[in-house]
Amino acid sequence: MSKSQKRAIDPQEIEPRTGAGYPEPFRQNVVSRRKRVLGDAFGLTRYGVNLVELPPAAWSSQRHWHTHEDEFIYVVSGELTLVTDDGEQLLTPGMVAGFPAGDRNGHHLINNGEGVACYLEIGDRNGQDEVFYPDIDLLYKVNDNGDRVFSNRDGVPY
After folding, report:
1. How many Cβ atoms sit within 10 Å of the Cβ of residue 110?
2. CA distance 158 to 145
């Protein structure tokens, strides 16, 4: 952290990223997601922390699981539906959920409520991580050139 960086900030000072980098046709349900990348504001490199806002009907992501990254979420406000292989579970403020690396039970969140829902998303930043999407023909991994890319399950890039 440089001397000019603050040790504490209001998250609203960070410009949100809207949408997701998914290729078409997989980005539609995530297009209105707003993510404030909090960890980068402090120069964190070993894990990421994001404050995510989902308007009504928005998804956090496509349902997925990670090979080398743990994920943890904390619901700040609103109601979210956690979708996994086990079904759906309603998450309310103060509830938490965790997803260990290598657990093939894909997950994502959907805002089925009427107001904006907000949650903290925390995960490590493992360069070997690959992301699998069990419901769609999509993979996210490092290619032969060292770039992180989306491809279909046969390895053909989008």
Report:
1. 19
2. 15
| Separation between Cα atoms, residue 152 and residue 83, nearest integer Å | 22
Return per-residue pLDDT of the chain as tens, 158 residues. 455 567 899 999 999 999 989 999 899 999 999 999 999 999 999 999 999 999 999 999 999 999 999 999 999 999 999 999 999 999 999 999 999 999 999 999 999 999 999 999 999 988 889 999 999 999 998 777 878 899 998 888 88
3-state SS class at 153: coil
| Region for 153 from its dihedrals, namely left if φ exceeds 0, alpha if ψ lies in -120 to 50, beta otherwise | alpha
CATH T-level fold of 16-151: Jelly Rolls (2.60.120)
Query: Can you name the residues that pair with 151 across neighbouring β-strands?
Result: 139, 157
Q: Which of 106, 138, 126 is CA-nearest to residue 47?
A: 126
The rounded distance, in Å, linking the Cα atoms of 82 and 95 is 11
Q: In what order do the strands lie in the sheet with 108-110?
A: 87-91, 80-84, 108-110
